[in-house]
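Sharing in case it's useful to others searching the archive later.

Someone asked me privately for the predicted structure of Xanthine/uracil permease family transport protein, so I'm posting the question and my answer publicly. Question first, with the sequence:
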Amino acid sequence: MSDGNTAQDSIKNEDLVEYGIEDTPEFSKALPLGVQHLLAMFLSTVALPLVIASAIGLGNSDTTYIVQMALLVAGVATLVQVYQIGPIGARLPIVMGTSAIFVSPLISVGTEFGLAAIFGAVIIAAPIEVLIGYVFDDIERLFPPLVTGIVVMLVGLTLIPIALQYSAGTPGTDTFGSLRNLGLAALVFAVALGVNQLFDGFMRSAAVLVAVIIGYLAAIPLGLLDLSAVGSAAWFSFPRPLAYGLSFEPSAILIIGFAYIITSMETISDISGTTESVGRQPRTEETQGGLVADGVMSAVAGIFNAFPNTSFSQNVGLISFTGVASRSVVGIAGVFLIVFGLVPKVAAVVSAMPNPVLGGAGVVLFGMIISIGLRMIAQGATLTQRNLTIIAVSLVIGVGVEWRSDALAQLPSEAQVLATSGLIMGGVTALVLNAVLPENGDSGTPSVMGDPIAEDDD
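And my answer, the predicted structure tokens:
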């Protein structure tokens, strides 16, 4: 019976495919389709480096350069996934960009140790994801949707204070928390929410990007947009490897290594979603190649002063929606990213984005990350008493140590970096509790307050 359903689903998917993975649309069609992929991922690719750079106190020129490198590496990584270099790459239409999973850990590392430690940890820990690609079948049971969903939720939850801070402006200035700043952030938030709810298709998926563009323009008459750095930025420049040096801090490497484990789960899901759009499961070499590319290109990112890369789920959704799974279309998006990454003026325009605009977008973006984690749990785990306990304890510990890190101020400095990371503490708590708490006899156990939330299938 299940085989019949699978075959029927495959036929339905094939009927919805306009261009398959190996199909090449004529250029007049491929170009706008590639730009569509670029628009779907552009905001996240530039917003996350902006958040990290601002949080660790980088100046305008450094921020512009890191955004430039984020675009460049994302473009190269996308082309590697699309066209493959040896065993590196899935040969699938996968768009790459800065991973949200790493934002909170990188801020913790950068605040404590600086940029050199960030890039050192990014490079040294990257092989973890390569290794996962080859042993995933043996360790998959350790990372069920319950655990990975909790960690993804923690990513969004630990970033909430940053979104609210940006919405108020720049801390320490006279205008911090002014009605002008909060009003601009509210405008971005309202537009994003309105477009998402009132439109369908691509407009809905690009709602935050539309809101940011409107907020960016609205900042001009409010006197909040400073484009002075754009005029002095060059039209073209080559990257400078290891421009900020490297340092290797054990606690920083542990934090980033754990983030690589979690982002590999996200990549596996994205690869499955991509092939499912054309009615099949991913082949082993595609999953392995995709994970190897994630790890290798994240190490390359560290060398070229960018943050770790991963597959972008919104572009997987775009493929399913449009029925265009062509690798060559995604390759066009990768070329655009490389071009933008070689033009500092583009990065300077992006880096000039006022904090309230980024804050208003951050409220939506980080909230969406929380909802994605919640959906992962809802779709992959039964909400029994055991699982609800794991969720509750993990989230409380993760959010607690992140938001009140001063409670652990008496710990040694190395231990503080680990102990105050919500992703590490909450994620490890979820991992350990899921491994040690028994599942037998949990079926049908009432949830908190005595109401049965769900029952196990058996």
